[in-house]
Amino acid sequence: MSPTAPHRVLVTGGAGFIGVHTVNRLAAEGLEILVIDDGRHASGERLPPAVRLETVDLNGAGAAEIVVRFRPEAIIHLAAQGGVSRSVRDPAGDALVNVVATVALLRASVDAGCRRFIFASSGGAIYGRAPRLPTPENTTPAPLSPYGAAKLAAEGYLGMFARTFGLSTLALRYSNVYGPYQDGTGEAGVVAITCDRLLSGRPPEIRGDGQQTRDFVFVGDVADANWRALQASARGAINVGTGVATTVQTIVEELARIAAYQGAISFVDGRPGEVRDTALQTGRAAKLLNWSARTPVRDGLTQTFTSFRERAGRAPAPASRGPAAAEAREGHGSRAGSE
Ligand SMILES: NC(=O)c1ccc[n+]([C@@H]2O[C@H](COP(=O)([O-])OP(=O)(O)OC[C@H]3O[C@@H](n4cnc5c(N)ncnc54)[C@H](O)[C@@H]3O)[C@@H](O)[C@H]2O)c1
């Protein structure tokens, strides 16, 4: 562990997809970890035994007190309403989690004497139809969804808390994260959905012509970026992606090959208004976090499909993924590449 690394870390949303990978990474470094996650969209994967879990809503009474009592040296804030379609249907509900809970957590972090605050933002949602690909961080944000607008608003609060309270804040703008434990139901990302379909005997499906491109980053690499961000002093916003644009059709065909699927791939209508291409410039992450994505997409897809297959063999599905959870995660695809 680096001498600058914090020891006591709070991870919100630590039971979710990116959260579980992040918590495992931090636990392997020997950190003392508290997870706050109300379980509404938990991955169902077990957290390491030494990790404490508080099952509370960040907007609920008592959440701030838990943060203050734990006195984290650093916070990784992953808890969010992640559904883009859902944010369109219920922008106020989205803002309640993605903005209001974030502001409350920022306030609690100052009260707790926390020094470092890492926020999970979204490169795909914040830039909108970016004029430049791969997109650098200094591009004027132009979100197209309430989800993207909420992420941008939260980044605004991060800046304010940095200026006014001296909190060291950093927004990591993830691209399309994929990997083991991602939810493959509802409107999740194309990788998770395709794995799910292949394993349940349904033909893989491509929305639109399949030539739309996304920047697919493996979740293990994202967990590593989170760990490096804790140790670094960089502030502001940093893209976390590969800089490589891959077509959705390439992803689906590669997964079909890995699954030894011989049947046809079906094409269905794309979603109106979807961004055609996204890819994030990665130089700032390399310079300020000494981080770059290491997992080639073929390896990442193989690991993901293998994990999904093992999990399918371990059915029944985790109880935490009930109908309410399915509703909560609707729309993940817009940011995860299936849109
Ligand atoms: N997955 C991606 O491709 C992607 C891309 C860009 C940004 N992000 C961001 O990264 C973060 C993690 O994403 P993920 O894919 O792991 O999502 P996820 O839905 O799997 O995990 C989020 C976790 O937060 C918890 N949660 C939600 N609202 C809560 C609340 N009010 N109080 C307590 N816990 C709450 C859920 O139960 C869940 O376990 C989110 O902030 C998301 O917006 C994800």
Walk me through the topology:
Blueprint: E1 8-12, H1 17-28, E2 32-36, E3 52-54, H2 63-70, E4 74-77, H3 84-89, H4 91-111, E5 116-122, H5 123-127, H6 146-165, E6 168-174, E7 176-178, H7 190-199, E8 205-207, E9 213-214, E10 216-218, H8 219-231, E11 236-240, E12 246-247, H9 248-258, E13 266-268, H10 283-289, H11 297-313, H12 323-328, H13 333-336
Parallel strand pairs: 1-2, 1-4, 2-3, 4-5, 5-6, 6-11, 7-10, 8-13
Antiparallel strand pairs: 9-12
Helix pairs in contact: 1-8, 2-4, 4-6, 7-9, 7-11, 9-11
The chain binds nicotinamide-adenine-dinucleotide.
Nicotinamide-adenine-dinucleotide (NAD) is lined by residues 13, 15-19, 36-43, 57-59, 78-80, 82, 97, 101, 120, 122, 174, 176-177, 189, 329, 335-336.
Structure in words:
41% of the residues lie in helices and 15% in strands. The chain is an alpha/beta fold and 339 residues long. It has two domains: 8-176 and 217-240, Rossmann fold; 179-214 and 244-277 and 296-336, UDP-galactose 4-epimerase, domain 1, CATH 3.90.25. The strands form four sheets. The chain has a seven-stranded parallel sheet, with helices on both faces. A two-stranded parallel sheet has the order 7-10. The protein has a two-stranded parallel ribbon with strand order 8-13. The chain binds nicotinamide-adenine-dinucleotide. Nicotinamide-adenine-dinucleotide (NAD) binds next to helix 1, helix 4, strand 5, strand 7 and helix 13.
